[in-house]
Amino acid sequence: MAIQAREDLLNTKQKVLAFTLTLLTFVMGTSEFVIVGLLTEVSTDLNITLATAGTLISGFAIAYAIGTPLLTAYVSRFPKYPLMLLFITIFIIGNIISALSGSYELLVLSRILTAVVSGVLIALSMSIASDTMPEAKKGSIIALIFAGFTIANVLGVPLGTFIGQLGNWQLTFWFTALLGVISLGISIFIIPKHLPVEKASAKEQLKLLTNPRMVLAFFIPTFAIAGTYTVYTYITPILEDGLGIPTAYISIILLAYGAFSILSNVLAGKIASHNGISKLRFVFIIQAIILGSLFFTMQSTVAGLVSILLMAVMIYVMNATIQLYLMNLAAVYFPAAKDFASSLTPVAVNIGIALGATLGGYVVAHGSLIHLSWVGGLCALIASGLSFISYRLDQKEVNVNAPAYQGIK
């Protein structure tokens, strides 16, 4: 089923494909994040400490960050249709192994397997969207695909947690495996079978990471997401100790946070539609102001909640723009590495999460919760500065290589 992207309006096949790719990210997001709500059950059942169970989360992120670009660089020379079906199948197997795990070690291995294939699936999904969607719709479609993760946090994780608490935590992974089977069944019929393939060795593609422009662009989302996660990592103590909100209401507030973050994906599509990188320069300044405002609003429950919900609105606004920007830069400097470039945004985000959590931990260990606000704001300002530099470099080079820079300008 070939899908051409010659018009500005989506045809029926493109709409169904967009839904299918969004469903995939929802399923992968649910599988990744649901463990957060089951740590107590996992630690009790496997007779490990809560801190050890927590490594299932950090281990997933590390495996994702390291394995995704390496494997994507290797497999991107092959046709996308069979690759998608193969990796969805491996994703299902990974979740089944998790469901059958009776030891911590086996569960860790299954989570690592799931992390790496999830990363490659996201990279391939973004590349497929770029290849098949109209130019004017690419930003909004990529934002929609990213929204699958947000919806997973709002709906998939609570549902998966409920299933795990109602039965056992293994039942949750049977649930995510079932979602994977549904995705596979749909993908067999919907994903285009004949898509362009750029053949290049993994070594050649990895050279893209030595390009200063790519490195500069890579760290924009890293610092943007680090700004949010410096605060978000400690959202529960901020709500309880800082804003004086009873524990019974925390889950409701976190649900509201997830709902507001859906708006972030809507904004992401609009920002990416027209010269998104130029807008991000100022978007990150707004993000810095919102994060910094918590320093002053933490003394008031209502004002503090406003700051936190606005923080949710800003969390994903850069995703679609950065995804397109990295792929467009790759098209300029090394066209054969476009699929590899499509894997870099999620990797940068995972590194940003780790950076934000580390910075937040240092601040809490040596200061107080209120100082998380300005440290997070500082990270957002660094992202803004990197965006300013990238935009200025684009303007200098656009006249030299105008045709190649058409997608960036």
Automatic annotation (TrEMBL):
<feature type="transmembrane region" description="Helical">
    <location>
        <begin position="16"/>
        <end position="40"/>
    </location>
</feature>
<feature type="transmembrane region" description="Helical">
    <location>
        <begin position="247"/>
        <end position="268"/>
    </location>
</feature>
<dbReference type="InterPro" id="IPR036259">
    <property type="entry name" value="MFS_trans_sf"/>
</dbReference>
<keyword id="KW-1003">Cell membrane</keyword>
<dbReference type="InterPro" id="IPR011701">
    <property type="entry name" value="MFS"/>
</dbReference>
<feature type="transmembrane region" description="Helical">
    <location>
        <begin position="280"/>
        <end position="298"/>
    </location>
</feature>
<feature type="transmembrane region" description="Helical">
    <location>
        <begin position="141"/>
        <end position="165"/>
    </location>
</feature>
<feature type="transmembrane region" description="Helical">
    <location>
        <begin position="347"/>
        <end position="365"/>
    </location>
</feature>
<keyword id="KW-0472">Membrane</keyword>
<keyword id="KW-0812">Transmembrane</keyword>
<feature type="transmembrane region" description="Helical">
    <location>
        <begin position="213"/>
        <end position="235"/>
    </location>
</feature>
<dbReference type="InterPro" id="IPR020846">
    <property type="entry name" value="MFS_dom"/>
</dbReference>
<protein>
    <submittedName>
        <fullName>MFS transporter</fullName>
    </submittedName>
</protein>
<keyword id="KW-1133">Transmembrane helix</keyword>
<feature type="transmembrane region" description="Helical">
    <location>
        <begin position="304"/>
        <end position="326"/>
    </location>
</feature>
<feature type="transmembrane region" description="Helical">
    <location>
        <begin position="46"/>
        <end position="71"/>
    </location>
</feature>
<feature type="transmembrane region" description="Helical">
    <location>
        <begin position="83"/>
        <end position="102"/>
    </location>
</feature>
<feature type="transmembrane region" description="Helical">
    <location>
        <begin position="371"/>
        <end position="391"/>
    </location>
</feature>
<feature type="transmembrane region" description="Helical">
    <location>
        <begin position="171"/>
        <end position="192"/>
    </location>
</feature>
<dbReference type="Pfam" id="PF07690">
    <property type="entry name" value="MFS_1"/>
</dbReference>
<keyword id="KW-0813">Transport</keyword>
<dbReference type="InterPro" id="IPR050189">
    <property type="entry name" value="MFS_Efflux_Transporters"/>
</dbReference>
<feature type="transmembrane region" description="Helical">
    <location>
        <begin position="108"/>
        <end position="129"/>
    </location>
</feature>
<feature type="domain" description="Major facilitator superfamily (MFS) profile">
    <location>
        <begin position="17"/>
        <end position="395"/>
    </location>
</feature>
